[in-house]
Amino acid sequence: MNHATKVAVLGLDGVPFSLLQDFFAKGIMPRLAETAKSGTFLRMETSLPCVSSVAWTSFMTGKNPGDHGIFGFTDVWPDKLALRLPSFDDIRSTVIWNALPGKTSVVVNLPFTYPARPLNGILISGFVAPLFERSVYPESMIAWLKSRNYRIDVDAVKGRQDRRFLVRDLFETLKIHSEVMLTLMERENWDLFIGVITGTDRLHHFFFDAAQDPSHPLHKDFIDYYRMIDSFFSRFVEKCGKFARLIVLSDHGFTRLKTQVYLNHILKTMGYISFVKSEPVSPEDIHPGSKAFAMDPSRIYLNSKERFSHGALNSKEAEMMRISLKKELESLRLIDIGFLSPQGSDRPEDRLFTRVLLKEDIFDGKCIAWAPDLVVIPRSGYDPKGALNVRAATMTDIFTGMHTHDDAFLIVDDPDIGKRLSQPRITDVFGLMMEVLG
Question: Would you say the C-alpha torsion 7, 12, 14, 20 has a positive or negative sign?
Fold first, then answer.
């Protein structure tokens, strides 16, 4: 690896270290297992909140959200309770390919790179990307991609109604993305190649209950999907050539979902939030006298005058309230949100959140003023959500899997990496790329 002059990165969105360990032991992914065994294979911690927009931005900048400014797929404006949808244009730190003057980069399906911006190379945005014509740089690539029937993502909306359609769509989209990546690896003269498979995240949200259950009707499909990834990885390695550092990683982990937990309903019960209409749908519907509100996936904001032009709390009140709210949330038990019957090892008296963190515990940098005041770390299986129009603290959905922040993985085809990076974070991957290319 001392002779590496290029870097090739393969991202597997939402793939947990623990699942790979199991699949390696069972011989389901022999080619990736071989690379893991001969190189470095580590459990990796990702960014908080553990959502793809935040995690992949931390990967591509090497910075925490307090510096790059992305805290979720949705946010509020800096000075008012109104919904905004951040994009690639809102990132406040330098992304890896812009830090490499004179180097050529090819980036395929990396989430949160929409709209595509000019670079020395090629960029095909990952989700969320509403307009395909704004998802590709240079524009001359669009016709070729359309000829390959390229699409950014699977049709998850249709997939909610038709599971078999979703399974077919997952396999077809994986095939298209794989072939486009391999073609570009062979055709382009790249220094940095980044390709991301996002179907793994979709597979896990809908079918994580099939992963370890041979009796599940979709268990074979789940395993076959991973076998297909391993076959693609074998060809990916061939296209890398001899002088590329190979990095494979996920942006977060996954675990079985037991129930979704609605933070704003909890805050309403505690008296922290009220609404101006009976069916609230966005932050504009939060009553200006509210003291706190939540946003996906685990963020809580105080309605302070210091932050919002019509805030309800002065700085002293906000500081006192965030400490008291932290204590209240830390003391919440499963029984307090209506959890009455045991599921596995959980008991009604168990805590709902493993930790509740203040923003300065997590973030630092020039954008910390925009950060959530509190971030909750849920008990495994209890997925925190920021929906406003809900009538209960918990609800089950069609999903069977949820994100985790502490079970992502990192594989590097260099055994020495593990000696100096025993407990990696996703921001560390930036340095692994830069030490070859910088």
Answer: negative
